[in-house]
Write a structure and sequence with these properties.
64 residues, mainly beta, SH3 type barrels, 5-stranded mixed β-sheet, ATP-binding, Putative myosin, SH3
Length: 64
């Protein structure tokens, strides 16, 4: 999965709360468990681990 968004760039690190695309629910919340360059490993609220490639992201997609 790859999200390319146009807005202010932010830093995403381990522990950040994010939304990731999900084929069943459209979007699901989760917490970043690992960052490998632009690839994020996210533990979602439905118990799955998802990989996401973020080339650009915006602050409104992060939970504060």
């Amino acid at each position: 999965m790859c999200l390319s968004l146009q807005s202010a760039l932010v830093s995403i690190s381990v522990g950040s709360h994010v939304w990731v695309e999900d084929p069943t629910y459209a979007w699901v919340g989760g917490e970043v468990s690992k960052v490998n360059g632009e690839e994020l490993h996210v533990r979602t609220t439905n118990g799955k681990t998802r990989n996401a490639l973020f080339t650009r992201h915006e602050s409104s997609w992060l939970e504060k």
